[in-house]
Amino acid sequence: MLTKQNNQNKQNLLPVTALLGGAIIWGLLWYPYRVLEQAEISGSIATAITYFIALLLGLVSFRKDLRMSHIAGGEPYLLLGIALFAGWTNLAYVLGVIHGEVMRVLLLFYLAPLWTIVFSRLLLKEKLSLHGYLVIIVSLAGAITMLWEPESGSLLPSSYGDWMGLSAGFMFALLNVLSRKDQYHNVQSKSVAVWMGVTLTGFIYSLFLPDLSVLSSISMDSYLLLFGLGIIVFVLSVVVQYGVTHVPANRAIIIMLFELVVAAVAAYFLTDEAMTLKSWMGGALIVSASLFSARMNRE
């Protein structure tokens, strides 16, 4: 009996560890992209290359699962939507943390539960509970606290990084709702759609840059870093997907919020960024809203 309980504890510990590890790595992943930007490799090119590597690894690793998903059929427009929204989400996130203040970008990204509730109501016809209304109110209060500029009276994001973080969370919510709506394709097919969408979005965005990076001019050290990031993105996608599949949503979101703690510590030691009291207050409200959304998921 004791052995059976120990095995059960180990089975429960593994997905939690996967999510915690994923949160830690996501909280640090912004820094290598900044290093590549300093090496004159734009965020869009770096994102496209790393996700292209993840895509190749996924096509090789999941070829049997992809074949089965193709045979099963389904609605191809859903995968197309997943690819499109994932492309915007991940590219905007990377560009935001490169050009903006890391913690502000992350906190604006974590407005995603607010947008998720809205899109779930519109696209999935889900009813809004009391906790859903609380998420909306507290999220909006946090966003207003962070973004409001007393001098101008504006509530719009004041920087490129803020816009990128806000739009990344918006598209992330759309991505999540569409993934829930798509019950036809397996996880492997959705993961490949994500990697493909980010790769194409990154390359297309790069074409409009005035100083497009030349692949032949990239140093070997930078290529090694890009290759390492590609492997990390692939493994991280699989690990986090395993975690969210086996951990209740209310626990998963709390664990993933640890990313903010890691990012805050990393930003303190690796950059000279310092958040204002107003940003901390808004951030506290946004995190609280995410915790309310966890309670809503439990219901």
Automatic annotation (TrEMBL):
It is found in: Cell membrane. It is a multi-pass membrane protein. InterPro entries: Diverse_Substrate_Transporter, EamA_dom, EmrE-like. The chain crosses the membrane at residues 12-31, 43-62, 74-96, 102-123, 130-148, 160-179, 191-210, 222-240, 252-271. It comes from the Bacteria. Residues 16-147, 160-292 form the EamA domain. Keywords: Cell membrane, Membrane, Transmembrane, Transmembrane helix. PANTHER family: EAMA DOMAIN-CONTAINING PROTEIN, OS03G0707200 PROTEIN-RELATED. This is EamA domain-containing membrane protein RarD. It comes from Nitrosospira multiformis.
